[in-house]
Design goal:
FAD/NAD(P)-binding domain; seven-stranded mixed beta sheet; binds flavin-adenine dinucleotide; alpha+beta; 8 helices
Length: 345
């Protein structure tokens, strides 16, 4: 049995902790909830289709399988409902868009996700002269609720401490990690956009991408699908919705901007004619990589320091599969595939 110190209780840290605990390992997770957290603002949607090319997303079938298994099992274990299956209705912008969809529905890979069904609630409420079609096997995870339920579980089982892990307070002594008088075998960074700020990890190609979302109340709008019209509108129930999201690659402070708010509202107002109340605006940084693959593995010259991150804009879909893969690598010594390995940088 090894002792792991995991830094960060976002999607990455939470799922890796569960995967290690399932293997009977000893785990302590530290989070101070003061650093930026993408998981706290994520809409939590998953969708196996990339709309730009109308193609299945990378390893869609494998990711969906593991994601469904993991979150359903965790719902039972944590006695909380946070995993919601819901189709995405894609609004077409032209007749060509609709024809392309029909063409692709016979494709051996992406075809299984492209339904011929049109969503009635979207057709009735949205300006959509070219119609819409549903994507199968989509939905959303209530990420803040999942994190909270997991944190309570970790606290009950002695696996959690609310604290900051400061690099200056960590020592690597022979084959041990020492932090605040406790000793561990490995330190695993799941600290989102902070992973390449540690010594020995600066070379990792992790780029923060700033995103903003709006929480809305819209009376007289009932939807039984997530709507995608270039932006997304996610129905939470009780006339509450999340609208998003912006993508900004420039170095910006983590603050809500009027520009993003106006942009998102203007996009939505082109599609619906309803009275919209903005209840809040949220911001966060997606931990992205240029090759759009996660980062998993050890620091170059330190076998006691590891990373699990770079989940980009698909944390919900990727984290269950890759946390399991990494936990197996850590406990059984299986190798990490090159395309996601930290060693590729
Ligand atoms: C606006 C927006 C919308 C998004 N929508 C979706 C979506 O619909 N679907 C989807 O799958 N993904 C979405 N994402 C992406 C998703 O949020 C990320 O992929 C995922 O949350 C990353 O998880 P993480 O655990 O790696 O990082 P984070 O969630 O950022 O977690 C890092 C954690 O580490 C902690 N921490 C950092 N440093 C320290 C330290 N020194 N000591 C202690 N604790 C520390 C932080 O407090 C934080 O809790 C969205 C992201 C944004 C910004």
């Amino acid at each position: 049995m090894s002792k792991y110190l995991i830094v960060g209780q976002g999607l990455a840290g939470t799922l890796l902790a569960f995967s290690l605990l399932e293997k009977g390992e000893e785990v302590l997770i530290a989070d101070d909830y003061k650093h930026a957290s993408a998981s706290q603002v994520a809409a939590g949607m998953w969708n196996p289709v990339t709309f730009k090319r109308l193609a299945a997303s990378w390893l869609a079938k494998e990711m969906l399988e593991e994601m469904n298994l993991t979150f359903r099992k965790l719902e039972d274990q944590l006695q909380t409902k946070f995993f919601h299956v819901l189709p995405v209705a894609r609004i077409f912008n032209s007749i060509q868009d609709a024809n392309f969809w029909d063409e692709k529905s016979d494709h051996p890979e992406v075809g299984r996700y492209l339904s011929a069904r049109s969503n009635k609630s979207v057709q009735e409420n949205f300006n959509s002269p070219f119609g819409n079609s549903e994507v199968n096997e989509c939905g959303w995870l209530n990420v803040p609720l999942f994190r909270e339920a997991a944190r309570n579980y970790f606290i009950q089982h002695g696996n959690f401490i609310e604290d900051t892990v400061n690099e200056k307070e960590v020592e690597f002594i022979e084959s041990s990690v020492v932090w605040k008088a406790s000793t561990f075998d490995k330190l695993i960074l799941c600290n989102g956009i902070g992973v390449n700020q540690w010594k020995g990890l600066e070379h990792l190609d992790l780029i923060p991408n700033h995103g903003q979302v709006l929480d809305l109340k819209i009376e007289n709008l009932e939807l039984d699908a997530i709507v995608n019209f270039g932006q997304f509108l996610l129905p939470y129930g009780n006339n509450k919705f999340r609208l998003g999201a912006t993508y900004n690659w420039n170095e910006v402070p983590d603050e809500p901007t009027d520009e993003a708010k106006e942009f998102l509202l203007a996009e939505l107002k082109q599609r619906i004619d309803k009275y919209i109340v903005v209840e809040s605006q949220k911001t966060g940084f997606r931990p992205t990589t240029r090759d759009r693959r996660p980062i998993i593995g050890f620091a170059k010259e330190n076998e006691m320091l590891a990373v699990f991150g770079g989940l980009g804009s698909k944390g919900v879909l990727l984290a269950p599969y890759f946390s399991k893969l990494f936990a197996t690598g850590l406990t059984e010594g299986t190798s990490i595939p090159k395309e996601v390995s930290a060693a590729r940088f």
